[in-house]
Amino acid sequence: PKETLEEFYQQAAASSADVIYLGEAVCSKRRATKVGDWLEMAKSLAGSGKQIVLSTLALVQASSELGELKRYVENGEFLIEASDLGVVNMCAERKLPFV
């Protein structure tokens, strides 16, 4: 549930970690949390002084997933974990840093 996820990331914000990775990297069918929710959570966590990295799917299988990935890449604020070569390409085309 979304509340459990938010609680987990609030604990991460209070931890000694310097970097927090947000997002779904494994299965798009577990997308209870939408792109806008992840970005909102990222902004909130960034306020705690953490570096935020948005994780992306490792295997893109549908055009809807591609559209979401584009929103992550074009977020304008946070570093992207490019888990798929398509995301690497999107970042490279825009001259954006990624991990």
From TrEMBL:
<dbReference type="InterPro" id="IPR051454">
    <property type="entry name" value="RNA/ubiquinone_mod_enzymes"/>
</dbReference>
<protein>
    <recommendedName>
        <fullName>U32 family peptidase</fullName>
    </recommendedName>
</protein>
